[in-house]
Design brief:
The protein has 126 residues and is mainly alpha-helical. It has helices at residues 8-29, 35-38, 42-73, 78-112. The mean pLDDT is 79.
């Protein structure tokens, strides 16, 4: 078996220098804020999942409630139909309220920053 060219002590010293250089390079990259801080990462996805949950929950909850009404009052199929319509209406209302709140929050954050919004000319130049 061939002998190593350097001793284990010098190999450890070389590895330690490389590790310190790696840590220093990582510290420079950490100055950039992550996607959660900038609002471009997981928060948009969680908002989307929240809207999806509100929509599905309202529709399925309305159908389930309508089925219960049909089962106990014997008004089949009108309870399910009514529950579907009411559940869909309520879930649309909940989604609109959530979207309005998110839109108002984004507009207030946008007004506080130095973002440039291009102007749109609606007049025709015929």
């Amino acid at each position: 078996m061939p002998e190593p060219e350097e001793s284990s002590h010098s190999a450890l010293e070389r590895l330690h220098r490389r590790l310190e250089a790696f840590d220093a390079a990582g510290a420079d990259k950490s100055k950039f804020p992550g996607p959660q801080v900038l609002g471009i990462g997981g928060s948009s996805a969680s908002d989307g999942y929240r809207v999806l949950g509100e929509m599905l929950g309202g529709v399925l909850g309305g159908v389930g409630f309508g089925w219960l009404v049909d089962h106990f009052v014997h008004t089949s199929p009108w309870g399910v139909v009514g529950g579907l319509v009411i559940g869909t209406g309520l879930s649309i209302y909940a989604v609109v309220v959530t979207a309005s709140r998110k839109s108002a929050k984004a507009a207030s954050e946008l007004n506080g920053s130095a973002a440039v919004v291009p102007e749109v000319d609606d007049e025709d130049d015929d």
